[in-house]
Amino acid sequence: MKNKNSGIGHDDKRELLTAIFTLCLLDEFVSEEVLDELVSDSRKAALKRVASLRPSKKGSIEFDVLGHVIYQWQRSPKYLAEDGNPQRIPARGKAPSIESLFREISRMDYFELGLRHLQQLGRIQRIRAGLYLPRHEVTIVQTLRPELVELLVRTINRVVATVLHNTSLTKKDAIRLIERVTAVPDLPDTEIESFKLFAREQGGALINTMNDWLERRRGETKARRTNRSHLTAGLHVFAFVEGNPK
Q1: Predicted structure pTM score
Q2: In angstroms, rounded to a whole number, what is the distance separating the alpha carbons of residues 200 and 122?
Q3: Cis peptide before 86 (omega within 30 of 0)
Q4: Could you give the CA distance from residue 114 to residue 65 in angstroms, rounded to a whole number?
Q5: pLDDT tens series, the chain, 246 aa
Q6: 127: nearest Cα among 87, 161, 182
Q7: CA geometry: angle at 211 spanning 207 and 216, to 5°?
Q8: Which of 32, 145, 183, 196 falls between 20 and 30 A from 90, CA-CA?
Q9: How far apart are the first and last CA of the chain?
């Protein structure tokens, strides 16, 4: 069920709220009265924050499709030069071209808009003679969009689900999903820019390695045409900087 005025369905919102309330109620010191008070205070704070955030709605970005296009461009022999690097290709025309990449993944309906999104997100760069090259850096969206809000909802749900999954397993030798964090409370503010760059480099390398692993197995499954059930699986990496209470 979708809300007519939002890209996020009511079911997604319900799951998000359920996840948050679950975390609160797992704390034995949070009664229903305390929870009601927290909800009221949080709602007021959220209204103030939303007033300054107006999501852009200029065409939905399909991140998975764009990531697939770049992956194929960087891995498929048809789109690689003799030295193993991605070829410089035109936007339109027969293969190799960006248009043919969309065609090969059966998403020609998204090509024109997808081409603009690839440029807006900095995933491709135009060089001489109207040719393009893919950029290796992962997508970092710099404006708040409905798709990002939906991704945030899913991320919170997945974090809660991961913690509950890991804590519900009774066998000590059971394989649990990774859930790790590293942080220090006293990084000098002069190091923040360096931290951002280092985190992007390390996080990008990890995501690329994981993406290769997932895409290989995804492709092998498609090639075998198995009737096995499929699950969504992935890894979400993010860095954070926050002020400490005085």
Answers
A1: 0.56
A2: 15
A3: no
A4: 8
A5: 344 444 456 777 787 788 788 878 878 888 888 888 888 888 888 777 666 555 544 567 788 888 889 888 988 889 998 888 899 999 999 989 999 999 988 899 999 999 998 988 888 989 888 899 998 655 555 555 566 667 777 788 888 888 888 888 889 889 998 888 899 999 999 999 999 999 988 988 898 888 888 888 876 665 556 667 888 898 888 888 988 765
A6: 87
A7: 160
A8: 145
A9: 44
Q: Which residue has tokens 């070829």?
A: 87
> What are the tokens at 118?
């690839």
